[in-house]
Amino acid sequence: MKRKGILVVVSGFSGAGKGTLMKQLLQTYNNYALSISMTTRAPREGEKDGREYFFVTKDAFEDKIKQDELIEYASYCENYYGTPKAYVEEQLAAGKDVILEIEIQGALKIKERFPLALLLFVMPPSAEELIKRLEGRGTETAEVIKKRLIRASEEAKGIEEYDYIIVNNDLKECTRRLHELIEAAHNAPLRNIELIENMRQELEALVKGEN
Fold first, then answer.
1. In the chain, how long is the greatest CA-to-CA distance?
2. What pLDDT score was predicted for residue 132?
3. Residue 184: predicted pLDDT
4. For 19, 114, 119, 161, which has the most beta carbons within 10 A of its beta carbon?
5. What pLDDT does 210 receive?
6. Is residue 200 one of the residues assigned to a domain?
7. How many folded domains does the chain comprise?
């Protein structure tokens, strides 16, 4: 029986290191596809359209919303972020586990529309470490960092909605744990209804054959 892909949603505070973790996961294991989100924010230095994000105007993004071409979308720090639908559906059908790196608003919308999606939340070891990582980027003003900390405080109230949390302290170890959680999720009964039903039918046939 062909293995079906799982929709994996990874969220975390800005600065928790989830982007670096996703890159490491894809470099280490070969059964993942990272969904590229669409955003209206400006590219950061070194980012390329179609690689880190699809960078679009606000008008273009709102057209996508109207055409129902996004699995989910949300507004974060005065910009839109969303997940294009077509790519995700293609990769899941091909048996790939599709990783969506999105914030908590979008993650909960995904869970509503796709109950079998696996939700993972990446956390730093401490709030102090989070501040260090945000400041260490060197790309954001003190005002923006303060906004991100306020947002993290709000997001912390919704972490219980996720299936698992991952504390991102050691990158290699965190990548391994992430992979193991996704692999284990493939064996959940609700994701193997067809296998279970086939076993039931075979058992019933054997029982009837003995009568």
1. 77
2. 79
3. 95
4. 119
5. 67
6. yes
7. 1
